[in-house]
Amino acid sequence: MTVAGIDARTGERSAVSCAETTANDVASRCEAAAQAAAGWARTGRAERARLLADVATALEGRAAEIVATADAETALGEPRLTGELARTCFQLRFFAEVVCEGSYLELTIDHADVSPMGPRPDLRRMLVPVGPVAVFGASNFPLAFSVPGGDTVSALAAGCPVVVKAHEAHPATSALCHDIMREVLPDGVISMVMGREAGIALVRDPHIRAVGFTGSVGGGRALADLAASRPEPIPFYGELGSVNAFAVTPAAAAARSGEIGRGLAESFTLGAGQFCTKPGLAFVPAGAHGDALRDALLGTVKGRAFTLLTDMIREAYTDVTYQAAEQAAEQAAEQAVEQAADPAADPAVGQGAGRPAGRTVAATVVEVEAAGLTPELLEEVFGPYLVLARYDSAAQLRAAVGMLPGALTATVHAEADDEIGAELARTLTARVGRLVWNGYPTGVSVGWAQHHGGPWPGTDTVFTSVGATAVRRFLRPVAWQSAPSGVLPEELRDEYDGAPRRVDGVLQLPNS
């Protein structure tokens, strides 16, 4: 069996195909990762950082080939993919800085002493790599959340070899990036498998010590159950579905309706609406200012056609939008569906009279009363799809927000001294991992303070998949009690001065 990419624009099968990985090959690659684990964990931090930076340089050296290959498989376009490759390389160098800085190790020393509880032994604690990690690439980011992406890089930075299960949406891109990385990294530190059965075998392999995943709620839950049902369960870190609420207060709508409407339109259609941070539900006030915001939004997306990543994604999007249009036709007084004219679609689809033909889709906006939100309207829809919930009072907005499931982000647009905005900020932080104020959520910068996670179903964990602390997923704590200096890791010896440490309760910085 082979896996070949499909040109998202034409539907033509790529001439380049990758063989599905057999169960025996999965086992051998996991064993090679296990054999490499001790050496990679012992690699000095400066050397590990240098290798991560060298991977970035190697990817940049073949940028034109990578971008062309990815565009042929995803139709994301050269500008977007050039930017994604730049992000990927920046991320590699950023984690090199994280490794060199060293605070991620949580180095802690308590010398032997007498405490109120009696004598205390010498205790020294730090985080160490968990071992080989399985990473599942995402469909919507062929670079930044795929073979050379954030899960892979944070695991490598932590000192863990990685076996990547490549996504079938871009096999040639995955294979190309994998080959480039293998040329730089030691044997066994990076490897790749392909195919659904290979992914199952990967999670089951006893050498694998943790799993990183970006994808659907259904797929993530199945893999999480698999990881938990092993004879020796392992942690599963999944980034899953997220509807990402976007709330506009009456004061903000009155002051900036056109600006917010246009910005929201660009945000929910960015990348054809195939971002995990896409705002999928917008709370907009009823009345003239809210109408103006809606009209600016619709005017921005009108006439635009979008190519989705795969046939499966496009068919799922078509089914959802068709059903929404059918429901709107039956309940015209409560719900309206606006679908911008798509040159390759049946022009009557917005009225529920037909399904799109061809390979592009239009943006879809479903307008409802906030009081009429249903569980179905609170589910993520992959693609350029937005539910516009109109509210006529702060109480109605408060009740609707109370229905929201967990998510990666929430956005509030408010004015100065806006009491409704302040209340929204307090409420929404209980349901999300990142609150965006007077901005747009589609854009996750890589940095020390970033958090890309959130309550279920945004993720199944308190950890992040973007930012410096992403390494924490692939580390575990170990304490040494009364151990002689020769037994201790270098970072826990008294004379070490290469990373921040907390010694007898006092934080000590290098060279301080």
In brief, what are we looking at here?
The chain has 512 residues and is an alpha/beta fold.
Properties at a glance:
about 500 residues; alpha/beta; 7-stranded mixed sheet; 5-stranded mixed sheet; 13 helices; 23 strands
Structure description:
The chain is of the alpha/beta class and 512 residues long. 37% of the residues lie in helices and 22% in strands. It has 13 helices and 23 strands. The protein has helices spanning 23-42, 45-61, 63-74, 78-101, 150-158, 171-184, 196-204, 217-229, 250-269, 288-301, 311-330, 394-401, 419-428; strands spanning 2-6, 13-19, 107-110, 113-115, 118-120, 123-129, 133-136, 162-166, 190-194, 210-214, 236-239, 245-248, 281-285, 305-307, 335-339, 360-362, 364-369, 385-391, 407-413, 432-437, 475-481, 501-503, 506-508. The strands form six sheets. It has a seven-stranded mixed beta sheet, sandwiched between helices. A five-stranded mixed beta sheet has the order 21-6-3-22-23, with no helix packed on it. Strands 9-8-7-10-11 form a five-stranded parallel beta sheet, with helices on both faces. Helix 8 links the parallel strand 10 (210-214) and strand 11 (236-239). The longest helix has 24 residues, at 78-101. The radius of gyration is 25 Å and the shape is globular. This is Aldehyde dehydrogenase (NADP(+)).
